[in-house]
Structures are given as structure tokens and as C-alpha cells.
Amino acid sequence: MRRYIATRIVTAVLVVFAVSVVSFLLTFLTGDPAEIMLPPGATAVQIAQFRAEWGFDDPLTVQYWRFLRRAVQGDFGVSLRHGQSSLPLIAARLPATLQLTVTAMLLAIVLAVPLGVVAATHRGRAMDLVAMGVALLGQSVPNFWLAIMMILLFAVSWGVLPTSGRGEWTHVVMPATAIAINLMALLTRLVRTAVIEVLSEDYVRTARGKGLRELLVVMRHAVPNALIPLVTVVGLQFGYILGGAVVIETIFTWPGVGLFTIQAILNRDYPVVQASVFILATAVVLINLVVDLLYVWLDPRIRLA
Amino acid sequence: MRALAGKSPLVTVGAVIVGLVCVAALGAPLLATSDPIDQDLTVVLKPPFWWDEGSLRHPLGTDHLGRDVYSRLVYGAQISLTISVLAALLGAMVGVVAGLVAGYLGGRVDAIIMRVVDLNLAFPLILLALAVVAILGPSLRNLVIVMSITTWMIYARVLRGLSLALREREFVQAVRALGAHDIRIVARHVLPNVLPPILVIWTLEVARVILMESALSFLGLGVPPPTPTWGRMLAEGRDYLTVAGWIAVFPGLAILVTVLGINLLGDGLRDLLDPRLRRQT
User: Fold this and answer.
1) Which pLDDT does position A213 carry in this prediction?
2) ipTM of the complex as predicted
């Protein structure tokens, strides 16, 4: 067990290291970072000056080493647009993104679990078909389109929810729903499959044999066990949720990392892009690590092995 | 196909939708009622034909530049399908080879390939795609390459597991005992056995890539104008939401219906070909 945890942590560290290499190499995709960072009309002299100033003339390994050394100290360079260090700019926007993603995840779970359980316990009947229909639609709908349609309905037509910004709880409703929808669909199907599987286990038959009411059998014996795999999937989907937040934040001008990064990408503000890609990817790695460790703790078959 | 249709009417629905979208994409020049790029400022923001001011000349209305929404949708299908089918193919090729090699050879090669998969999965894919497209420039070729980077990992993971199991099976051991070369064993004996799951994953990944490509296009990093794409049509329609909602409604519906159709077909294929995949996809 201890060995498993150690291996898992070492792997996570290696992946974070590789993440740093990829974030670093992003600006070298076209060969010359100076070319993509400067505006299109820059003269050869300006480019040469910029290269010297930013150290782009050094060998790649020297540059990477410098990038890594600074990154470890939280220094990802100065934003070309804001003239400030990138990291604090991103850190200031992280809470907004976390609020949005965590709300979306909770929303997805709260909707998916009952829907999946009902579908599983009513297998093949109307309730199941409705639940699966909802899941199928949720899986296929483009979340940015759903966001726009919600704006059209709830903000433009009915005027009950605000179209943009952050502050009141009403601001969270539409963006969180838009992000949650795809995950909700995935989780509903997963819960349904897991519950169906667990319902045929021996211990469920034993519980029924004891004469327990069906509701109790499902709620006490089947569902808790069926939900264990959910932990891993929710963890694995975190990167996907963050991706969804990037798109949805721009629609609702939600002041988070996603909106900020998109603006940085469109403004060719690469120090910010690098920092943001590195930080978000590292967050995904850490969350997956926590989820794996949580899984060990949740599932006695692994914990005691 | 008949076995598939017999199993569930939903699969038939999926197949019909996918068929119609393919017809739209291939027959776009014949099906379009006007040039999708042609601007006509005398008919801007005309509503669909069932509205009072609408006419059958522009069945689904026109946008802010007087371009025909229906014709743009039909041509948009071309772009969406081309990118997603090609990207899913490229991703499948890379992922299948990586997964087969990892599973069949095992050891250090396996460890390295699977770490690269972990690494790729760690990035919020749409963010990575956005950054790479922004740097390389949005062209059809670049989009296909970038999208394939977001899809190869799932093949690698599934195929690694499958080939790991197949390697130990008797018929593979037997061919090896006969002195067959590794490449021959994998190509002739392992690969044919893993084709059904590849086909299933491929179908579902095409749907996912369509969603991602339209998101990129929506954010302004898709195939550049004037080529009509569903994502950009939606983005343009957003600015006219209050006065001409149809500009944003129809491309979104097109994406929804297409992805729904492919998912229905993919689910049906999975149930028919390889029920074991249920848990993994």
C-alpha cells in the first residue's frame, strides 16, 4: 500500500515535470518565440533586440533551465500586456474559476446520482428511457450553444438571470449549468451501469433475503458501493471541466482563469499562456493524485491488500 | 447493419441522421440554395420562412450580412465532418500503434508510452488546442493535427489493455512458436481482433471532435473566414441574439443533431460489437 502511494506520488511529480517542458516548448512551436510575441509589423531590429532582452538567443536547454528555475519560484515572466508578473494575475482569478467548476461538479453529481439510480432501478421502463434520453441529449449538446440559448431564454426573454459578471449567486446559475451538462450526462450513464451491476451482487441478494425493504436495499447496500467508481471518473473529468470553463467563462465574461487565458492567447501574451497552461495542468495532475489516494482509502479491497 | 437496426430503433435514427449529414456535406454545392459566402445587404437579418417576413428564398433566414443561413449550414457540415473524420483517423492511427506497441512489448517502452498518455491527459485539452492553434495559425491542416492530439490517448489506453491480454492467448503464442516476427504477429493476429473496439471508439471520438472543433471555431480559432463553420456562425449570431435569434439557433441545432446521431450510432455499434467497452467509453 505504502509502495503504491509512493509510486503514485513519484509519477505525479514526473508528469508535472513533463508539463513544465510542454508549457515551455509551446512558444517554440513555430521556431521563433520572438516572432509570435511581437506584433506582426515588428522590424528586424526590434525582433533582434527583443530576442536579446528575453534571452531567446541562448541554447534551448539553457532557456529551459532558466524557465524551470524561475517557475519553481513562481516567476513565469512578465505579462506582455499587463506589465505585471503573470502568476499573481492568474492567482487572483483562480477563486472565480474554482467557484464555477466546483459548483458545476456538485450540480452534475446532484443531478446525475438520483437520475442514474432511478434509471437502474426501473430498468427498461419509462423512467429509464427518460433518464437515458436526458443523458444522451446532455452528452451531445454543445455547452456554448446551451449557454447562449439559456441567455436568450432566462436573461433576454424573461429577465430573471444576469447575462454576465460575478457577484450574486444568480450569476453562477447559467455558467455552472452549461459546464455541468456534459458531465451530468456521463455520470448518469455511469451510475446507472454501476447500480445495475451492484444490484446483482451476492450481498444485495442477502440484504433482500433478510427481508429488507427494496428502498433500503438500494439506498444502504447498493448505491454506496456503486458510487465508488464515480470518485475516479469525477477526478478524471476535472481537466475536461476546466476546459469547459475556459469556453463558458468567455460567454458570461466570468472573471476567471479561462477568460483571462483566452484573452492572453488572442493577445499573444505568451508568458501568461505558459503560466496558465502550466498551472491548470498541474492542478489536474494534483487532483488526479488526490482522487487516486482517496480511492485507496474508500475501497477496502485496495486499502487492505 | 440489419442486426444493428433490429436491436434498437435508436440506432436506425442515428444512422439516418449521420447519413443525412454526410449527404449534406458531400452534396453541398447541389443542395445549397445560394452561395454561402455571398453577401446581400438588401436582405440582412431575414427570418426563417415560417415567420411573417420570411420567404422560401432563404428558408432558414439570413444573417447580418445577408448570407443564406441554410446554405451556410450545409457547407458548414463539410468543414465539421472533414476535420473530425480526419482528426479521429489520425488520432486512431497514432493511438492504435502506441497502444499495441505498449501492450505487446511491455516493459520500459510500455511505461514511457503510458506516461506520455498521462501527460497528455493532464492538460485541459481545449486550452492546449487553443494555444497550439493560436501559435501555428488556424488552417484546416493545423486543426486536424491539433484535434488528433486530443484523441489518440483513449485508443492507446484501451488497446494496451487488449493487446496485453491477447499476447498471452494461445493462438498468438502458437504463431510465435512458429517463428513469426513480432510485427507480423501484431499486424495479422492481434490487430484484426481489436478492430471492433477501435471502430466504436472512433465513432464516439468523431462526435467529441465535432464538439471541440465547433468550440474552437466559436472562439475565433477555427478554419478562417470566409469558409462557413458552425461554430463561427454561432459566434456571429450571438451579437444579434435579441433581434435575430435564428442565426445562433440553427448552427447549434445542427451540431446537436449531428453529434446526437453519431452518439446513437456509436452506442449501437458498441452494444453489438463489444459490450465490454461499456465501462471504458
Assistant:
1) 83
2) 0.86
Terminal Cα distance for chain B, rounded = 22
Give domain B2-280's CATH architecture.
Answer: Orthogonal Bundle (1.10)
Quick check: bond before B226 cis, omega within 30?
A: yes
Q: To the nearest whole angstrom, how far is the Cα of A211 from the nearest Cα of chain B?
A: 32
Q: Using a cut of 0.90, tell me whether the model's pTM lies above it.
A: no
Closest CA to B206 of B150, B254, B131, B270: B150
Tell me which DSSP letter residue B47 carries.
Answer: P
Instruction: Tell me the pLDDT tens digit for each residue of A151-175.
Output: 989 988 888 888 888 888 888 899 9
pLDDT tens figures, B233-260:
999 988 888 888 888 999 999 999 999 9
Q: Which of B141, B48, B150, B143 is closest to B92 using CA atoms?
A: B150
d(Cα B44, Cα B34) in Å, to the nearest integer?
Answer: 14
Cα separation of B165 and B158, whole Å? 11
Task: Say whether B119 and A243 touch across the interface (CB within 8 A).
Answer: no
Q: Give residue B276's pLDDT band: very low, low, confident or very high (50, 70, 90).
A: low
- Confirm or reject contact between B242 and chain A (CB < 8 A): yes
Q: Does B130 touch chain A (CB under 8 A)?
A: yes
Q: How many CB pairs under 8 A join A and B?
A: 129
In angstroms, rounded to a whole number, what is the distance separating the alpha carbons of residues B37 and A158? 35
- Whether B122 sits inside 8 A of A284 (CB atoms) is yes
Question: What domains appear along chain A, each with residue ranges and CATH number?
Answer: 2-72 (no CATH), 95-255 (1.10.3720.10)
Give the model confidence (pLDDT) of A43-69 as tens digits. 888 888 888 877 787 888 888 898 888
Nearest 10 degrees: Cα torsion B241, B243, B247, B250: 80
Q: Do B121 and A239 touch (CB under 8 A)?
A: yes
pLDDT of residue A41: 76
Contact A145 B255 (CB under 8 A): yes
CB-based contacts of B140, cutoff 8 Å, min separation 6:
B79, B82, B83, B223
Looking at the partner chain, which of A156, A239, A285 has a beta carbon nearest the beta carbon of B242? A156
* Of A46, A8, A50, the residue nearest A295 (C-alpha): A8
CB of A156 within 8 Å of a chain B CB? The answer is yes
Interface test with A, best of B123, B133, B238 (most A CBs within 10 A): B123
